[in-house]
Design a protein that fits this description.
single chain; alpha/beta; 8 helices; about 10% strand
Length: about 200
């Protein structure tokens, strides 16, 4: 006879889907960021669903582990979505900023940029790495605003890595995007510090 501590059929089913989703995401993590690392307490709090702010903005000097932390935090975030309020396997989109800006250009193949905007407005989590790596055109800034604004009003989270603070992003992504990101990440900005990991490890 099953004991009261045994998982129910639904709990077992959710656990199977969780393990499959985490394995699928883990396979997408670049090899250099695969090793587990100890996350900053504020980052770990966000990843496990205990932070007040739904979004996370990782900043700090070059090489302190922003990207590595973001990949590992996102992996944990995926795992966390299979809790008591499970609503289906989460969809996560990951872009390095330079690739995203190229994909959003008005001359993108067969108008794929507009379709990408709609897609990124709706995914469960949007992860953009190294946001200040390039300066987008005015057109791309407007598309970024559309993405972030839609996610903001629907409380869909983002995780951003960047070498500068949200309040200092205007010169890179424009004032409207800066303002929206500052609102989205209020209470969710984490400054990472430490030695440059690129001198022998992942950044």
């Amino acid at each position: 006879m099953p004991s009261s501590s045994d998982p129910t059929a639904r709990q077992s089913w959710i656990a199977e889907r969780r393990d499959a989703a985490v394995a699928t995401f883990t396979a997408k993590i670049p090899g250099i960021y695969q090793p587990r690392i100890e996350l900053d307490p504020a980052v770990a709090k966000w990843a496990t669903g205990h932070a007040d702010c739904p979004s996370l903005f990782l900043t700090g000097p070059i090489g302190v582990g922003k990207t590595h932390s973001a990949w590992q935090a996102t992996r944990q975030w995926v795992h966390t979505q299979f809790g008591a309020d499970y609503r289906g396997t989460p969809v996560v989109e990951i872009f390095r900023s330079t690739a995203l800006f190229d994909a959003l250009r008005p001359d993108a193949h067969h108008g794929s940029g507009r379709a990408l905007v709609k897609q990124l407005q709706r995914v469960d989590l949007l992860f953009i790495d190294d946001l200040a790596a390039a300066r987008p055109s005015a057109w791309t800034q407007e598309r970024l605003y559309e993405i972030f604004d839609e996610r903001y009003v629907n409380r869909r989270p983002v995780i951003i890595t960047c070498d500068v603070l949200p309040a200092e992003l205007a010169e890179v992504v424009g004032d409207r995007v800066r303002s929206r990101l500052a609102e989205m990440c209020r209470g969710g900005v984490v400054l990472l510090q430490g030695a440059d990991r690129r001198r022998g490890a992942a950044a």
